[in-house]
Amino acid sequence: SFYYGTFPAGFLWGVGSSAYQTEGAWDKDGKGPSIWDAFTHRKGKVLRNETGDSACDGYYKVKDDIQLLKELKVNHYLLSISWPRIMPTGIKAEQLNEKGIQFYNDTINSLLENNITPIVSLYHWDLPQVLQEKYGGWQNISMINYFNDYANLCFEKFGDRVKHWITFSNPWAVAEKGYETGEHAPGLKLGGCGAYKAAHHIIKTHAKVWHSYNNTWRREQRGMVGISLTSGWGEPVDPHSQTDRDAAERYIQFHLGWFANPIYRGDYPEVMKNYVGRKSAQQGLGTSRLPTFSVQEKTYIKGTSDFLGIGHFTTRYVLQRNFPFLQVSSYHTDHDLAELVDPDWPAPGPKWLYSVPWGFRRLLNFIKTQYGNPLIYVTENGMSETVQCPQLCDEWRIQYLKGYINEILKALNDGVNVKGYTAWSLLDKFEWNKGFSERFGLYHIDFKNKNKPRYPKASVDYYKKIISANGFPNPREVENWHQKAMDTCSATHQHLAADSLITHMEMVTEIVLPTVFTLCILISIVLLIVYLRNHS
């Protein structure tokens, strides 16, 4: 049932995005190539071979986008820094890019001038390509020191103003999609081992960066360092079945627990160690494919998060499923489970993203119980659409935001320590291997228009009302928000249609007129030649 009420005073409301997905300017002003530049430039890696080379042109539109943030009346903006933009090869001793550093200084200053708090992620997947080519990226332990140098440069240059740092955004996807399935950059399919090895190095890197901040910068800068972990909720198909309950527990532990358990409890979840260890032994391997932490490493890693960032999008029903021993080893067969969805769950966008708000409250309560009720910021939560024509009256996104934010309110009443919410995302943007086919933005971008204008969807008006009211005051007011949002989007839609027509006419003018003009010249030349021949 829907719960009417308001959030505590001081609750933070924001939106987020990431560097590669929005900035563009992939090779401008001294920026080095990232693994995503290299990956997208290889044919067949991304839907329709699209790239983030120009993305939303966010590099050139900082002031415009900050106006959108002001329009939304958010408290914070979650952005990521592109490592190769400020350190082109990823190696501090080799080269720093002052223009890249200046770009982020200007962005941070502009946010603060407009009373918007920057929450900064150091890594949203765009590893410098040089580090991938030279060392194999996150498969190599040397990344720990290179990343730590990069993080310390960021603390030095921006830490006087940035007080909320995220080391890694969704490291699960970095490890699993980058080094297991190869769906994401760098596109490696190191089945059964690659993801575990990458994650192992990422966890150790996170801990090193936290200790660097703690020892060198905290006293002076008084900021916080955390990590952002993305996880769905796993619900047992049959809650009365112990095997289904165990399978649902494994689902969470192999997603969230993989990273959260070492940071909050000092080691990988027991169930991960048991399952991967047993499967490795059945394959005849002498050691587990899941690496181990030494006693010293466990102590060093435990407690290295001042807050936990949580990204959450959807839920699955889970049941036990045994995979045969002879099958090729894989992260996906290690946990012996199958995922199901309820066909009645709304899924207006891509087929992986079902709207199941109640799963969010359960996930937040799980975190409270498992990890000692840590300080939580929701760092990513949102709904995408896949329809190709502009969808400004995004009724489904309004329902999604309303439902999921309401479950956070219920979780707060359960005693969960949530301090802020970040809607994902500010803009329609490049969605990794899906290109521009999925749209998460509160603002629509017309990518066919060279100026890439931004248009507010109905969800902008609705989210703005939630922020202003700090929650859901009463049924009548909340219902009124919905009607106003839908009325506003209808007017914006007409504006977009008119702009699209003008853009189309400009394209016709730019392409057709020069072509006709060129043809006329060619025909004139041919006629002139014929004429001269006849009269010679």
From TrEMBL:
EC number(s) per entry: 3.2.1.21, 3.2.1.45, 3.2.1.46
Keywords, ordered alphabetically: Glycosidase, Hydrolase, Membrane, Transmembrane, Transmembrane helix
Catalytic reactions on record: a beta-D-glucosyl-(1<->1')-N-acylsphing-4-enine + H2O = an N-acylsphing-4-enine + D-glucose; a beta-D-xylosyl-(1<->1')-N-acylsphing-4-enine + cholesterol = cholesteryl 3-beta-D-xyloside + an N-acylsphing-4-enine; beta-D-glucosyl-(1<->1)-sphing-4-enine + H2O = sphing-4-enine + D-glucose; beta-D-galactosyl-(1<->1)-sphing-4-enine + H2O = sphing-4-enine + D-galactose
Membrane-spanning ranges: 511-532
Signal sequence, renumbered to the chain: none
InterPro entries: GH, GH_1_N_CS, Glyco_hydro_1, Glyco_hydro_1_AS
Top-rank taxon: Eukaryota
Keyword NADP: no
GO molecular function: beta-glucosidase activity; galactosylceramidase activity; glucosylceramidase activity
Protein family according to the UniProt entry: Belongs to the glycosyl hydrolase 1 family. Klotho subfamily.
The protein's name in its UniProt record: Cytosolic beta-glucosidase
Originating organism: Rhadina sibilatrix
Gene encoding the protein: Lctl
